[in-house]
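[step 3/7] inverse_fold.run input=structure_tokens len=318
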């Protein structure tokens, strides 16, 4: 990988992945793109940046050719809760953007990464230790676009030889980008509110287990998969990966170890609870470990300590 184009660079993953990859491959070799062009932003100012609406196929091809990219990391998409509120727009952006990105990758013979999600599973999927290869009939528009995306990426690999690779991300937790319309974002918001208010009201109910991962492990997973020996990959789109599975009261207990007075309460959002209930409690990531050496470093205690330490600095709280 020498010249990497990233779409959705100002989103939850992109805003950290661009900086992470620029440190590895060089600032000038990671071209960040997003539909927004904010002032004074590290991603915009730290290297090449192009305004790009992923629904503009011609512009995407023009940017990719201008920078002579050999790798496309396509992140632009609507997340689960927003997608359920705007299903038509979600299909248009998630599938229209993906199709355009795959076509550019095909035309320019680029390596290609796009994330799927545990949202690609549904109520009929085995809930515990969900297998790599299993039934995928999600009941959400987000999940429909994720399964469709997995199938489309596998098609481009088999039909056109495009080197597509993907992972099914669990909920991602980070202190850089604020929560962005996901069902798992309670697990991001709770750390902010614990420091700012000493309390949090969860929109996901007690006892609702979901797979989660700290962002540093997610960034490492993307680079490790993209650098993996293709001859070792039996799967392509997309690998189950996870670091931990927990439910809201467990993250609250971990926070209380650092903020003893922290108070947790619940006001369940039926829409996001229904989405969460349709997802696995835990997934099996043996295939990722065996085929490309996936390995997560953070667990709930180490993630919680790092999140609170970094947010104290970000929020300027003693
Ligand atoms: C969401 N954070 O909640 C995303 C992710 C597994 C969850 O896909 O929509």
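[step 3/7] decode complete -> sequence:
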């Amino acid at each position: 990988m020498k010249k990497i184009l990233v779409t959705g660079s100002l989103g939850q993953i992109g805003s950290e992945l661009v900086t992470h990859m620029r440190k590895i491959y060089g600032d000038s070799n990671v071209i960040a793109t997003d539909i927004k062009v904010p002032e004074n932003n590290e991603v915009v100012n730290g290297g090449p940046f192009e305004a790009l609406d992923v629904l503009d196929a011609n512009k995407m091809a023009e940017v990719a050719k201008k920078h002579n990219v050999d790798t496309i990391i396509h992140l632009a998409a609507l997340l689960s809760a927003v997608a359920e509120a705007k299903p038509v727009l979600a299909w248009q952006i998630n599938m229209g953007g993906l199709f355009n990105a795959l076509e550019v990758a095909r035309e320019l013979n680029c390596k290609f990464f796009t994330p799927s999600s545990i949202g690609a599973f549904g109520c009929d999927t085995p809930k515990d230790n969900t297998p790599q290869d299993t039934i995928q009939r999600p009941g959400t528009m987000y999940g429909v676009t994720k399964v469709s995306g997995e199938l489309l990426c596998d098609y481009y690999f088999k039909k056109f030889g495009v080197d597509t690779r993907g992972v099914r991300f669990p909920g991602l937790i980070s202190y850089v980008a604020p929560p962005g319309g996901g069902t798992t974002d309670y697990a991001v918001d709770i750390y902010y509110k614990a420091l700012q208010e000493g309390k949090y009201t969860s929109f996901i109910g007690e006892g609702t287990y979901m797979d989660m991962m700290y962002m540093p492990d997610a960034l490492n997973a993307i680079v490790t998969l993209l650098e993996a020996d293709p001859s070792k990959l039996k799967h392509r789109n997309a690998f189950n990966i996870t670091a931990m599975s927990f439910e809201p009261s467990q993250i609250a207990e971990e926070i209380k170890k650092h903020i003893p007075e922290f108070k947790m309460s619940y006001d369940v959002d039926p829409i996001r609870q229904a989405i969460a209930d349709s997802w696995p409690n835990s997934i099996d990531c043996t295939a990722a470990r065996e085929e490309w050496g996936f390995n997560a470093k953070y667990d709930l205690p180490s993630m919680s300590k790092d999140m609170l330490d970094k947010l104290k600095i970000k929020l300027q709280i003693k």
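[step 4/7] annotate
The radius of gyration is 19 Å.
The CA atoms of residues 255 and 304 lie 7 Å apart.
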